[in-house]
Each structure stands twice: as C-alpha cells, then as structure tokens.
Amino acid sequence: MTTPIYNNSDVLQPQAGHRGPNDSAVVFWVDIFLVGILALFTLMQLPRILARLTNTEEARFGHLLYTSQDLSRSRFTSLSSANTMSSHAPLFRRPSAEEEKGVQPIVVPRHIPSWTAVLRPITTILRIPFIGRIHFGGGLLLTGYFVTLLFAGVYKTSLFMNQVRPGYVAVSQIPWVVAFATKNNIISFVSGIGWDHLNYIHRFSGRLLVIAANVHAIGFIYRWTIAGSFTKHISQTRYTWGMVALVSVDVLFFFSLAIWRQRAHNIFFLSHLVAFILFLVAVCLHMPSILSYVLAGAGIYALDVILRAFKTRVTTARIYDVPELCATAVEVPSLNAGWRAGQHVRVRVLSVGMGWYGWAEAHPFTIASASLGTTRQGLVLLCKIAGRWTQKLYQLAADDTRKEDAGVGINIRVMVEGPYGGPGNTMMSSFSGAFMIAGGSGISYALAAAEELLQKAARNTSSVTILDLIWVVRHPEALAPYIPIFSSLMALSVTTTTALQISIFYTRAETHEHNFSALEVPEGITLNPGRPSVALRLQDLLSRTRNATLLPGCGSKPRGVFVGVCGPGPLADDVRRVIDNVESGEQRELGGIELHEEIYAL
C-alpha cells in the first residue's frame, strides 16, 4: 500500500483537485449575514432607542459617574446615622409654600412597549427554562448561531478534505467573541441588553471558536502523521506559531470553565488575558491573510479598555458592617450622579486591609441608591459576603480599631468603574405600575428603582401611579438599618402622584437570638411572616393599576406594568412563572407586563 503524497508547498490551501468556493469569501459573507441579523434586531429596537435618547432625563444618565453640586445635603439618610432599632424621622411632610408655587406641569416620557409584551404568547414559550439560567429563547439563538457556523464550515466542501475552512471559521469569530465579552460594546447599546446578560453568548461563541480551531489543527496533524512528515512541518515557523495559537486557545477554554470562574477568578482572568494576547499574535504569524479579523478583535478590546479607564474613578468611600444582612455597606459621597437604577459598578479597594492581592480584584455590585438621590449620600453599594474578598471587606468594616468614632464607619480609597448593565432601552418611569421584589441583598436594586421612580414623580416626569416594593429576608431585624431609608421613601411618595407600598417578609421564626420585639415598624410598612405569594401580590398590583386614575398625557388606558426582580435564581423563576400565568387578555388590557431580572452570575 503506497503512502499518499501531499503537496507541502502550502498545506493551508485545499488539496489539489479540490474544487469549491474561496474559504475566506465564505466566512466573510457569513459574518455579513450575522451583521445583517444584528442590523435587523437594531431596527426592531429603534423606536425604544429613539424614545430613550430623545428623553433628556434618561439620555444623560447611565454612561459616566460624576459629582453634581445641585443637591441639598440636609436631606441625606446614611446607614451610619440610622438608628438600628427605631427611626424618629417624620414619615410624612407637606410641601412647602415655595414647592407649591413651583409645581411643574406633568410631562410623562413616551412609552414604547417591548417586543416581549407585544408577542405575549410567544414570549411565554421563549422564557421556558432550558439549560441553567438560559431560557428556551436563548437556546434557539445559540442553535441558530451553531447552524450558521456549521454552514460556513461545510458549504460546498468537506471537513475531511479541506481542513483550511475550519481555520477561517475560527478566526472569523474573533471579533464576535470579543464583542460579546466587553462591557462597552455596540451590541449591548442597540439591544438594550447588559453585557452580563450577553455573556452566555460569549462563552458559547468562544467554544465554537475553540472547536473550529481544533478541527483545523487535528486535520493537518493527522495528515502529517500518516505521511511521516509531522516533525518536518512543525519545525517550520508558521506551523510552530500555529501550535502556539492552538495551545493558547485551548488554555483559554480550560480556564474559562465554571470551576475557575467561580472559585479562582484571578486565575481565570490572568489566564484569559495572557492567552488571548498570545493567541492574537500567534494566529497572525501563522496565517497573515487573516490580519483583518485579528485587528478587528484587538480594536474592539482596545476600545473597551480605553472606555473602562475613562469610566473609572478613584475616590474615598465609607464602609460600614451590616451584620443583619451579613454584608458591607459602601457609601461614596463624592459620586452622586450618572447612573440608572439597576446598573452596577466594579469596585477595587485600595487598602492593605484587603491583603496582598486584594487591591487587584474588581468585583461587581448593583448600585443601591438613585442618581441625584435625596434620601442617601451619593453612590451606595451593599456587598454581601459571598467569598474571601467580600469576607475581608466585611472584617475591615467591622474592625473597631480602625474607626475614629463609633458608628461613623471607616474611610478607604476605592476605584469605582462603571456604570454597566441596567434596564437598557427600557424607561421604568414610562409605565403605569411598577412591581419590585427582592431577596436578601437584592434590595440594592429595588431601593434604587423605587427612589428613582419617586424622584421622577416628584419632578412630574413619571407616569407610574402604583409602586409596590417587596423584600424577602431571613430575619426581620434585617429591616432595622433600612427603616430610615424606607421612611424617607414613604415620606417622598406622599408628595407625589405615586402610591408606594412596602412589604417585608421574613422566612425564619423568631428566636432568642433573633428577637425583634424592640423593632419599631413605621406606618405604611408591613412586616409579614413566611414567603410572599407572588401571584397574589402581583394580581393585587395589576388590579390597582387598572383602577388608578391615569395622569395627563398617558392616553386612555394603562401603559403597562414593569416588574423588576433581584435575588436568588429561584425567586426570579417564580416571578417569571407568575407573569406567564397572567391571562393574555388581562396583559393586553394593562398594556403588557415587562420583566427585568438582575441575577448576576459568572
């Protein structure tokens, strides 16, 4: 049996006699097809994009953190100044004469229903859980992505005869993989979906890239091995760099597995950074003809790095331990504007108290206060203990030896980067009703959203007339540090057209250690044992929204209900099921129900 002889002059080209389209042209047009899909999606979102950008209040927030001098500090409520067992702040106040004279006309924002509300029956199917936190709709999207790349790999060719095509497929996805990973990208802007909610597409597209690269390499390694020329080929510079690129991309895949992301994030990040840079360099030296794809990916990443540096602030923060929630409160008084409710920031603590490497770690936290807020001082975060870094932060905040005065907290230097994520093109203030439900430290999102809506209602720029806030905690004493804040929100709501209800549910029984007999719950706030019936609470809000008087400029029927949830995954699943069980006719009568989930996961 004779050994097949291969043309070694350029094994990166198809075998002699192979007929088919140019490989680079195939992947180019497939990328154009993907761009077309993105353009179509942008066109579908265009009305909501324009509605937000043409609204001054919405357009100027959500991009950069900054300091505004327009606030009166006398009205701030801080966790440090809050009495942990009672609040003597007045719950209600009447508008002053100056305020009554300066009443502004009601100018509600334009409301554009989301496609999830318009396509109600289809939305219910698309929200069925599929794999982990990925829903059926996301599964269909990933399936379509896979089929598209499979078409690019086998169109008028065979993977057994042409190993070059998978290589082109792999490098053609570099810009997409990078774009889905960056925190500042055009895909998030046009879709209104935060980078964290697109990260599952980044992981999937990255794995398809890894598969294509390995199919490309294994095909040539097999051919060289059976021809007895592996050593000869691998000693050539271009193929050596090809092996370097292959090892780099496999390292990227291995250290991106969930066990590394969740338990050794520093190793994940460092390996990603080093292997990614090495992969880009190696693939250019291996296949110079694909330089344009590498430059596109590098350009997207470089732009993201520049924007992240531009969005980073180095400032002083005050930290307090909140033992009732096993969390640390972080207040940044110097940053009081620039974000939207639901957005998060990444925080680095520049203190030796965090350990030798603690300063190098950046962690995401949802902002717990409203931009230009009047109930708390600046940007506020609630950092729940969830690992070594947050444990060290809590210990630092609880260290009495570092406190100058009791109850004042500790001043530290921090790097705050953001804001990111959030509601995207959705304007919460354009709905008729809002339902906020949070579990544990998820109160960060609910507080920021409620405060933002009430502030806009006070300025007569919100159409929300019914607002419910539900908080589920283990023990009722978790409410204690937040009584002054809840009291301020209740007081603010009395002066607006928005009716606020706050309900606290505790899931553990009262014990000697968890005794809340001294807890004074202000008027307007209910404290209930057990878990809330999300279905009953939501149905009650829908009924009150339907019967509420519409504000001027809101038309003749309700403008929909916004539902925001932040907390454990099962809580979000429960809320989603309840919304899907609401009759389609009732949803249409109310203008639709739009769900926003703040469930962060690596």
Automatic annotation (TrEMBL):
Pfam families: FAD_binding_8, Ferric_reduct, NAD_binding_6. It comes from Fibroporia radiculosa. It is a multi-pass membrane protein. The lineage of its organism: Eukaryota, Fungi, Dikarya, Basidiomycota, Agaricomycotina. GO terms for cellular component: plasma membrane. Gene3D superfamilies: Nucleotide-binding domain of ferredoxin-NADP reductase (FNR) module. Signal peptide: none annotated. Its EC number is 1.16.1.9. It is an enzyme of class 1 (oxidoreductase). Keywords: Cell membrane, Electron transport, Glycoprotein, Ion transport, Membrane, Oxidoreductase, Transmembrane, Transmembrane helix, Transport. PANTHER family: FERRIC REDUCTASE TRANSMEMBRANE COMPONENT 3-RELATED, FERRIC/CUPRIC REDUCTASE TRANSMEMBRANE COMPONENT. InterPro entries: FAD-bd_8, FAD-bd_FR_type, Fe3_Rdtase_TM_dom, Fe_red_NAD-bd_6, Ferric/Cupric_Reductase, FNR_nucleotide-bd, Riboflavin_synthase-like_b-brl. This is ferric-chelate reductase (NADPH).
